[in-house]
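step: validate -> pass
step: tokenize input -> pass
step: predict -> running
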Amino acid sequence: MKSYRALALKEIKAQKMTFTLILIAIVLSTMMTAVIGQSAGVLSAMRQQQAITLGGNRYATFLQMNQEQVAALQNDSRLSFVGEYVTLGTTELNPSLSLGLNEYQEDVAAIYPTISRLKEGRLPEAPMEIALPEDVLQHLGLEGNLGDPVSLSLSKALRHSIEIYSYDFTADFTLVGILESNYLNYISGGVTGVVGKGTAATLLPENYLYYNVDIRTTDKNTFQETVNDLISTLGVHELDTLYNVPYLDALGISYDAGGSDTSSQGFSLMLVAGIMVGLLLLLAAGLVIYNILKIAVVQRIKQYGTLRAIGGEKRQLYFLVTGQVLLLCVIGIPIGLLLGTLSAKGILTAATSLVSPEIFLVQNRDELNLLIAESNSGKGIFLLASALITLFFAFVAAIPAAQYAAKVSPTVAMAGRSIKIKRRNRKTKKIRNFEAFYARLNLKRNRGRTAITILSLVMSITVFIALQSFSSLLDASSAMPDHLGDYSVVNEYGGISSSELAALEANENVSAVAAEQFSLYPLDEQYHPIGIETSITLGVSECFQIVGLNDRWIEDEFAQRLSPEQMEQLKAGEGCVIRNPIPVQVGEEQIGTTQIEAGTHITVAGKEFLVLLSLDGYDTYFSVGNNGFTNGVQVLVSDRLYPQLTGIETYAELRPILSADADRDAFDEVLDQLCQRFPGSTVISYEQTDRQLTESFEQIRLLAWGLILFVALIGLLNIINTVYTNIHTRIAEIGMQRAIGMSTESLFKVFLWEGAYYGLFAAVIGSVAGYICTIFVEAATTDVIQLVTIPIIPIAEATVFAIGACLLATCIPLRKISKMSIVNSIEAVE
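step: predict -> pass
step: emit ->
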């Protein structure tokens, strides 16, 4: 032997099985990091593509800009993209849905691919040409033949959703394109049609011909700084800056909407969750390497003692152990990188082949493959990082075993390990199952090995559970506004009776119904509301509104804003919530000046009650359906108090919430009958909206599940690897047990019980650890660390997989060992 490097190589050759198992762990670890690294770029690109589907390829939009402001934006070097469009006007399709027509000066298909996807015909090019979604044509009662005239009565306001001054007109268009139905904006109550260039200039007066400008900044890190400077320089109103929240979140760009950073905390928690899951993955692989290597060192303890006795130094023994791992890394890492690359390609191909290319906003499979290739352009960096990470964790896993070998005493090591048996005073009791009892004794015999084995299993189970929650963080649609209920049933005229509300609540398909009442009172010349008395002093161009909400709607809106005591006061009709008007500057006139603070008392219709909460700015507002906010003071009370104040008992809007196993077709018939009993009622279903949001995440979900299953497979292989090692290193012991009369069947049962115990203990601990990780992962979505629903299905799956893998890992070596002769088993030397 010329050097300890040669001895390290001979050690590997002498312990083929042990080091083969370590090599497998290194290969699996490298595969895992390589697949995750290569897929990370694709997942990120898919998430960004989903965000573009939801909100367009823009960072933000400035509303109501004049030509001078547009020119200033186009000449600003800090902006990489500036595109403008003109809103022609809106028309009401029903109380819950309105159609807005836009004239795009930019390439609408590139910026807003979802709203411009053609089903038939072409996009408008000339003035007075129009393209409408298929569902809009149905709402308008039109057949939708290309070339047909379309007459629409439109209205355009100077202030987007605040009714101040509006221009009303009727225009005749020529239908040149039918767009695919887009249900994403049903939540906000709007759908979009496209008109040809020059239409706005033909139909709108000059003071209503303003632009909405989409922007993207050159530097993502200075996005908010750039926007703030533009707002200040161009004099943009605070309400006229619209952020594309899904896209900004997907890009990880920090933005400031409404005075507080709404993205930094969530992005930070998502980063923490990602790092946490990644570390768990690597720890799982590292523990396998450590466990196997520690067993190998203990087996060779006499040899290390001999080396120390003949003059071997601690650093040389230290190198002997770590050198073995490094040699295996030289072999295993390239194999793992190759297999990881092939596996990543296989996962991507399998995931993307299951869905239509249109979900990815491309037209065919070739464009989809190009998108994936572009998203995966940094493959070399990911592979290098994977190799370095695996090498680092393998080396760290080898250090404890190397320290143990280096510190061994030559005298003690050469004399053999002295085993001290400590017997505790135990009560005599009947052994009901000898094999299970013996298995428990085996687990207690080497508590350190048992603990490490269980811990490595725990890591794999924890990762499997946490990853299923982590995939939800990739869903860009989580940034979209939520909707209350599965339907919106509106009747603005006579309203819907309380008995009808009770009938819906009792319906077998319904879990709950949120209900709203609404009354609007204009002001007289002295700024007093007409038809009701109040102590509130109102301002010019304001109005007075009373909104009644039932308990279900109150809980949805205010459970996070009011204390339990305040919630009870609001439900009991002893308090109210005030929504103050929005201050608006029109010319030299300030509109919306009334401000009522929380904690004050107000009087309405002769009844005095406490203001529990005051909402300002463009915080939550209430309207019937999606009619928008009419600027004024809103007093929100319980539906128990509303009839006393207004004398009205009917409801303007109902939001049924279906049960999980609801029969939608049967419930649709119930709503049809309701509309017949109450003329003027309209129904909007959010089923298509939810479906489109789900489909937008489908490609990411499939890819994420491919990764989860791949990581789960690695976890299973690591479990098999660890248990196999424990069994394989006890060949001599098994031979001795058979020599004293233990049958093959009983021997199998002992080790199967051991495997079952490993799986059960690891499942319990791993489930708890996985749930804790799930809490942190969910916090990345909600920005609040709180208890979440226990992931029962992932825990059950992980438990079954872990126990099954342990039993499988036990059977594989036992079948081989049981065929060995007793003498060969006792004398077995690897």
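step: describe -> The chain has three domains: 4-48+267-420+429-478+696-826, 57-243, 487-685.
step: cleanup -> pass
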